[in-house]
Specification:
Layout lengths: L7 H12 L8 E5 L5 H8 L4 E6 L4 H12 L6 E6 L5 H7 L5 E7 L7 H14 E11 L5 H13 L2 E7 L13 E7 L6 H8 L2
Helix pairs in contact: 1-2, 5-6
């Protein structure tokens, strides 16, 4: 089942957070389509103040087990897992019960989707994102022009600035045909100076 697979983009994004921990240190984070929870658990280990791992119902048993196991090692971070279906306002409001998120994370959650599904994804990101916050999506390039175009257009329609940068692999390699980082913010803001420098070095 897909939700139990560790995809390359999850490793890439977790590695990127390790290289630039200032992106999430002391911040409230939420991971969309978390799968087994690698990226969000890495954020907890690197000093996030709170991490919420979310996915579809079929993923929740394993995701909750992983969150519980990791919580024992990261007592300084509130780490939980909960169901979140994109575009479902009740789920978004439940995730917002403790406030909006400074960082929204996602790994390999944008791929050959309908425009309707892309709209739901961006609406969910927009609804969860705090003022001055940032979305970090690791994306494997699959020559899926329609999905990526729909994503950037929907971001623009909501006043979100999106840009694409190469993403380092676990061994430091950069392959723009394999993985990229989609950085989304409101009006082009959201990254601290050091984090901007970290992105510039990619």
């Amino acid at each position: 089942m897909r939700v139990q697979v560790l995809w390359a983009c999850g490793r890439h994004l977790a590695n990127h957070l390790c290289e630039a921990p200032e992106l999430i240190q002391g911040k409230r984070c939420i991971e969309l389509g978390a799968g087994i929870g690698l990226t969000g658990i890495a954020a907890a280990a690197l000093g996030a103040s709170e991490v919420v791992l979310t996915d579809v119902p079929a993923a929740m048993s394993l995701l909750r087990a992983n969150a519980a196991a990791a919580s024992a090692s990261h007592e300084g971070c509130r780490l939980i897992a909960q169901e979140l279906l994109w575009g479902e306002q009740a789920h978004i409001e439940q995730a917002l019960s403790r406030g909006a998120y400074e960082v929204v994370l996602g790994a390999d959650i944008l791929y050959f989707q309908s425009k309707e599904d892309v709209v739901k994804l961006v609406a969910t990101m927009d609804g969860l994102l705090a003022a001055g916050g940032a979305v970090l999506l690791a994306y494997e390039w699959r020559e899926d022009w329609e999905t990526t175009d729909a994503f950037h257009c929907e971001c623009a329609a909501r006043g979100l600035h999106s840009e694409q940068r190469p993403l380092r692999g676990p061994l430091g390699e950069v392959d723009e045909d394999e993985a990229v980082l989609l950085f989304v913010s409101r009006g082009g803001s959201g990254l601290p100076t050091r984090a901007s420098a970290s992105l510039a070095l990619l």
